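Allow me, if you will, to draw on your knowledge of protein folds for a short while. The matter concerns a single protein, recorded as an amino acid sequence and a row of backbone structure tokens. Could you please explain, in whatever detail you think fit, how the structure tokens follow from the sequence? I remain grateful for any guidance, and I place the record below:

…
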Amino acid sequence: MILLPTLAAGAAVAAAGSLATRHPRSSVFSPNVWRGHAGRKSVALTFDDGPSESTPELLRVLAQYNVPATFFQVGHHARRLPEIARQVAQRHEIGNHTDTHPALWLKSGSFIRDEIDRAQETLGDYARVNWFRAPFGVRWFGLRAALRTHQLTNVMWGVIGRDWTDLSGASIAELVLAKPAAGLIVCLHDGRSLTAKPDISNTIEAVRRLIPALLEQGCQFETVSQIVRPDAPPR
């Protein structure tokens, strides 16, 4: 008598988790954007999990091509490396990526709110933060209310580079370039969760390859705020 409802509830939770919480287009648990205008040849490079000790090298590559990007920063790392965090904010857009990069799956609303609040307090010292990205892209009950407090919108992606794996920079670039570059939001990483001094050499190599390849296609690079503008005309 008790087992059947328990199994049914478990199945419902599993279905919600697998279908709704990480689907790029889903707005079930939070306001959400995942792409820009399909008629514009614009790409938004986004980087998660930083700042890290390796972020300045990535910034130099972006500066070489005068490319803006959006960095979803972890509050823990921003406090650990405040000068690098500020260096990013001077030229790029900043988003909230929680305070300690936990999976939000099955967490309480108060836990989710605390993670977002603490990161927002840290990042707000040097940047205006309007965007959020859930760790691992996983959204859950309670996220909508937490984001509403700070008027944040969740950002997903059109392609994720899987650069936290052992993929080479060439393979990461190939993965991204396989997607149509029209309103494309690209998810890469300038950190590796809470790891200090991470090796992001494959990410940097991928970016070195991606930028000139996309420029050759006639693409322009924008921040998330720029690429999702509802009034942006086709190019």
Notes: Residues 1-20 have pLDDT under 50 and may be disordered.
